[in-house]
Design brief:
two-stranded antiparallel ribbon, mainly alpha
């Protein structure tokens, strides 16, 4: 039986196309800020959600570099799956607002 090694992405592809080191702490910080903004969950829950996001990234990208947008999509889906719908809604709106700002 052959085993497949699953690894964490080493890099992410930024919106500019440049590559940067993968940093799960940035995901955790973003989720924690979102949870605090809506008062829906605390730092401990943000850490659990981050672990789930990282798990999905490992399996979906097999060590390849995801884009920032792909990481945010997984974070959004994770919030919805965890039934943090108020935070997911706020996260989606935040992403849309920043996409508009970047376009201007």
């Amino acid at each position: 039986m052959a085993s497949t090694l699953v690894t964490l992405p080493r890099e992410v592809i930024q919106r500019s196309g440049q590559r940067a080191p993968f940093d799960a702490e940035r995901i955790r910080a973003a989720l924690q800020r979102a949870g605090k903004a809506t008062d829906e969950f605390d730092a401990a829950e943000a850490a659990l959600l981050t672990a789930q996001v990282v798990k999905v990234l490992i399996h979906r990208f097999h060590g390849e570099a995801p884009t920032i947008e792909q990481i945010q999509d997984v974070a959004e889906q994770t919030l919805i799956a965890a039934n943090h719908l108020q935070t997911a809604r706020a996260y989606i709106v935040y992403r849309e607002q920043h996409a508009t700002l970047r376009a201007d």
